[in-house]
Amino acid sequence: MSVLIVGSTALDSIKTPKTENPRLLGGSASHAAVAASFFSPVKLIGVVGDDFPKKYIQLYRRHKIDLAGLQILPGKTFHWSGEYELNMNHRRTLLTELGVFETFTPHLPASHKAAPFVLLANIAPSLQHHVLDQMGRAKFVVADTMDLWLNIALADLVKLLKRIDGFVLNDSEAHQLTKEDNVFAALRKIHKLGPKYVIIKKGSHGSILSSPRGFFICPAYPLHTVVDPTGAGDSFVGGMMGYLAGAKGSVDDNIRRAMIHGSVVASFCCEGFGLNRTTKVKRADIDRRVRELEKLTKF
Ligand code: AMP
């Protein structure tokens, strides 16, 4: 089955203590779509300007990503720039130029409206609503978000939580939303807002799922060197949704393995700038790290 992914399609300029890389392919939807493409067919919904490099369109195509829902409009592509501190755990946004994103209205081609798996990757909640308004009843809808929307679009986000099956956010966002320091108390409060599946990401410490079948503690793959963690969260949720769409059986049966696969794709994402490393990965590389994680967590 296929997975429909909407989110930002961006040019990212990333600074780390060691080096600087301008205008890489980035955006929540780009990272999530490439990650999902290892496991199932992907339909991408997004917008870019006429400055968007052709090599990035080719990169999407190499991953067999359906681009019928990608709008190419006159103007500039969304440009985001961020800088990491020495420990690579803290990031500062240097610049956000919306460009064609400012007036973006996601439009779903008829062929996309019945996609069974839907990932509303990080964009404004009003746009996430707009995608759901155009869809039939999907089998499983998951949304991601960021602190910005908790600050400036909380009412829209809270409304969205009633329309989705799964919600993915990081620990600081969970604290911001619920005012709870304890992650399990936060999970309980978020369920009360709507979603049956809630995943709290904890960066290099993995993630926690709370679902109808209980909790699952998902490890991060142990990496000695992190080159650029930008997009790791998007790769995690994209890999998870791609795996779910590609697997036989129910979401409840598969979601734990799906999270492990997402976690492994996220580890590759961290090993290169932008999508540089992820796009060189083969399915066999992913399976090898999944087996390693299996060994590491067996007791
Ligand atoms: P992450 O590292 O998982 O937080 O995701 C980083 C990605 O989010 C980058 O590729 C950015 O292009 C994208 N991004 C940054 N700010 C925004 C925003 N306001 N809306 C949507 N995407 C954004």
Give a short summary of the structure.
The chain is of the alpha/beta class and 299 residues long. The protein has helices spanning 28-36, 54-62, 125-134, 147-152, 154-161, 171-178, 183-192, 232-246, 251-270, 283-296, and strands spanning 3-6, 10-15, 20-26, 42-49, 65-73, 79-84, 91-97, 117-120, 140-144, 166-170, 197-201, 207-211, 214-218. Helix 1 (28-36) runs parallel beside helix 8 (232-246) and helix 9 (251-270) crosses helix 10.
Element layout with pairings:
Elements (H helix, E strand, L loop, with lengths): L2 E4 L3 E6 L4 E7 L1 H9 L5 E8 L4 H9 L2 E9 L5 E6 L6 E7 L19 E4 L4 H10 L5 E5 L2 H6 L1 H8 L4 E5 H8 L4 H10 L4 E5 L5 E5 L2 E5 L13 H15 L4 H20 L12 H14 L3
Parallel strand pairs: 1-4, 1-8, 2-6, 4-5, 8-9, 9-10, 10-11
Antiparallel strand pairs: 2-3, 6-7, 11-12, 12-13
The protein binds adenosine monophosphate (AMP).
